[in-house]
From TrEMBL:
<dbReference type="InterPro" id="IPR041698">
    <property type="entry name" value="Methyltransf_25"/>
</dbReference>
<keyword id="KW-0808">Transferase</keyword>
<keyword id="KW-0489">Methyltransferase</keyword>
<feature type="domain" description="Methyltransferase">
    <location>
        <begin position="41"/>
        <end position="136"/>
    </location>
</feature>
<dbReference type="Pfam" id="PF13649">
    <property type="entry name" value="Methyltransf_25"/>
</dbReference>
<dbReference type="InterPro" id="IPR029063">
    <property type="entry name" value="SAM-dependent_MTases_sf"/>
</dbReference>
<dbReference type="GO" id="GO:0032259">
    <property type="term" value="P:methylation"/>
</dbReference>
<protein>
    <submittedName>
        <fullName>Ubiquinone/menaquinone biosynthesis C-methylase UbiE</fullName>
    </submittedName>
</protein>
<dbReference type="GO" id="GO:0008168">
    <property type="term" value="F:methyltransferase activity"/>
</dbReference>
<keyword id="KW-0830">Ubiquinone</keyword>
Length: 246
């Protein structure tokens, strides 16, 4: 089954300990640091809208795009409950169709690791650049090479929650530089649990691979930081933020 189909309906249960408000605070600190007061923001790979809906709640105009219709369905329902006017679009970020002159394009929580081919990633960086206004920001993060190869790769994780349990088996392939995740979910339906399986793959990019691709795009400024700080990443950084200004 394709990635983020069954998983979409339990994603928020499994992410419930993530401090999304703190995540938005960090994004707003980035806006301040780069002197940007954005109005129009696009979030690529927005998933179930945890970031997009919260940004809209803070009065930004937000469009969220994602490859998974199921994730978008959940995002849309949550936006309706929160009464926030986010526009959700079903789009592969490899074929971006967005308004021009955007203030900010975001992609957080691993979206770029799902782009397995360097040529696709380069083309995404170029399209993002073309859709930003002068001074606009491109903010994205990756799960680091260290995290995918040493923490997630070659490990199995399991969690047992009320109504949903999962087994997450990970295999890191050094040659491809890709971590393949096999997910088995057991979701309660009345007295029985239904088993679902799906597979995801994430590429373990090294920060220098990303910076050398970004160097070829004419951004005026480019920085990268250990996530949620403005410090340079260290050898054990698990999430790295890249910030590019047009
Ligand atoms: C780990 S989730 C992150 C979701 C969300 N950004 C968050 O913070 O919770 C990764 C998302 O990337 C999406 N994705 C993967 N490949 C994509 C692609 N080529 N284009 C658009 N979205 C993609 C998946 O469907 C999934 O919703």
């Amino acid at each position: 089954m394709s990635a983020y189909s069954s998983f979409a309906y339990v994603y928020d249960i499994l992410m419930r300990d993530v401090n999304y408000e703190g995540w938005i605070d960090y994004i707003e600190q980035i806006f301040n640091r780069y002197g940007l007061k954005p109005r129009n923001i696009v979030e690529l790979a927005c998933g179930t809208g945890n970031i997009a809906n919260r940004l809209a709640k803070r009065d930004y105009n937000v469009i969220g795009t994602d490859l998974s219709e199921d994730m978008l369905m959940v995002a849309q329902e949550k936006a309706a409950d929160l009464e926030v006017p986010v526009i959700y679009l079903h789009q592969d970020m490899k074929e971006m169709m967005l308004p021009n002159e955007l203030d900010c394009i975001l992609c957080v929580c691993d979206g770029m690791n799902y782009i397995l081919k360097e040529s696709d990633l380069k083309q995404i960086f170029q399209s993002v650049y073309e859709h930003l206004k002068d001074g606009g920001l491109f903010i994205f993060d990756i799960s680091s090479h260290y995290k995918l190869s040493h923490i997630l790769g070659r490990n199995t994780f399991a969690e047992n929650h009320k109504g949903v349990s999962y087994i997450w088996e990970n295999y890191y392939d050094e040659k491809r530089g890709v971590c393949d995740f096999d997910l088995t979910l057991f979701v309660q339906e009345e007295k029985l649990y239904r088993k679902h399986t799906e597979s995801h793959s994430q590429r373990a990019y090294r920060e220098e691979e990303i910076t050398s691709m970004l160097d070829k795009i004419p951004f005026k400024k480019m920085d990268f930081f250990d996530a949620f700080t403005f410090q340079k990443p260290n050898l054990e950084s698990e999430r790295i933020y890249f910030i590019c200004q047009k």
